[in-house]
Amino acid sequence: MPTAKLKPTKLDPVWERITEEAEAAVAAEPLMGGLIHATILHHKSFDSALAYRIAMKLASPEMSEQIVREIADEALAETPDLAAAARADLVAVFERDPACHRFMQPLLYFKGFQAVQAYRLGHWLWERGRRDVAYFIQMRVSEIFGVDIHPNAKIGRGIMIDHAHSIVIGETAVVGDNVSMLHSVTLGGTGKEEEDRHPKIGDGVLIGAGAKVLGNIHIGSCSRVAAGSVVLHDVPKCKTVAGVPAKIVGEAGCDQPSLSMDHLIKSGSVSP
Fold it and tell me: Is-annotated flag, keyword Coiled coil (predicted)?
């Protein structure tokens, strides 16, 4: 007999939409019923489903699903902002990724979303001095998703990492709210210095595929970094930079590049 959907305990439009989509998906493709019931329909809240998904993805013979789940449940119960950030990330993926047609897709299938939520758990551990567990989470995220985010990095909400292969974000990096980046982006250092050595990315920035932003530099809010660029110096807000090394080639082209996801440099926008 099919398992009945557990009703939300409080108003949560994101979770209600996910459960509605899940029921429709099971009806359309019964072979997916086991995964969808275990990941979504057996849970009474988004927080519970998120903790379960993180645990199932990160578990290994070295740390069981139950232990990871207990850590995730503790983090989400103590710090509601973690789930709020996850909701913002999920909506960001849905709105910006043309391949995302349902709210449930990032939770079930998209490693960029899943990797960021696992990083958030590692960051929560890091801030509480639980460094070895945080390093373990970082290691598993790198192994499973091909995304290496140091648990001390600071990342805002509304983050969309498309494809998310070979992402590297260093220990002292800061990423603002509503940032979008594509695969093979590096926010790295330039040497062996041990102090503040990684980039600071402003709100609303769009970083193209394969871009490398290196050193303790600032990328101004609502700027664009073109695909394949190597950025070594500060970028003012609302500018587009491109090249190796990157130079300013024009204005950002719109108020919110990370939301429009427009990577093209328009003719006439290039600075003389």
Answer: no
